[in-house]
# Entry
Amino acid sequence: EVQLVESGGDLVQPGGSLRISCATSGFIFSNYRMHWVRQAPGEGLVWVSYIERGGSGAVYVDSVKGRFTISRDNAKNTLFLQMNRLSVEDTGIYYCVSDPIGGTNHWGQGTPVTVSS
Amino acid sequence: EIVLTQSPVTLSVSPGERVTLSCRASQSAGNDLAWYQKKPGQPPRLLFYGPSTRATGIPARFSGSGSATEITLTISSLQSEDFAIYYCQQYNNWPWTFGQGTKVEVK
# Structure
């Protein structure tokens, strides 16, 4: 069974940093591109970033470019998102998402990030 | 950036009714379009990609159609568990984008 479990979400002051993680199991992690998607409170969904299988290529939505870094540890089947210079607009639930496996993509339950003073 | 516009914004329906949701793209996204269902406290659930290929485990009462700049999601007979927000999404051009959502609520 494919499982994705996010962790590390917290309350952070504006300008602060946070690293969130996604531990995975049930599939060959290194074979799949991985993603982060965010939903702000009462708002829609934003596809924040993805990283290629080997970790060498990544893309970011403009609003986080230069502040967020996605990475992965294929030996530990874990995905990360390092978030720096956080602003209140970065508040939301962050979901870890896999590329399609077996006819669907897979989502974690999300980890909440709150940026507030 | 491809902008996706969904209609209607809200749909008030009764169980058993047929529901049709639309999503229009500001430019062609080819077949790289998908539908998601989102319920409070749960992650989004992929319904369709391609945009008419049903994802694993999605009931047959759901169907997807269209391509390029306009896609449609149809629920043939709405069940109580289908009340949710539905999002279309394109993965043709980065940044991948979602529509603003259509809320299907109880009439």
Observations:
- DSSP finds no helices and ten strands in chain A.
- The beta strands of chain A are 3-7, 11-12, 18-25, 34-39, 45-51, 58-60, 68-73, 78-83, 92-98, 111-115.
- The two ends of chain A are 40 Å apart (CA to CA).
- The interface with chain B takes residues 37, 44-47, 59, 61-62, 95, 100, 102-105, 107-110 of chain A (CB under 8 Å).
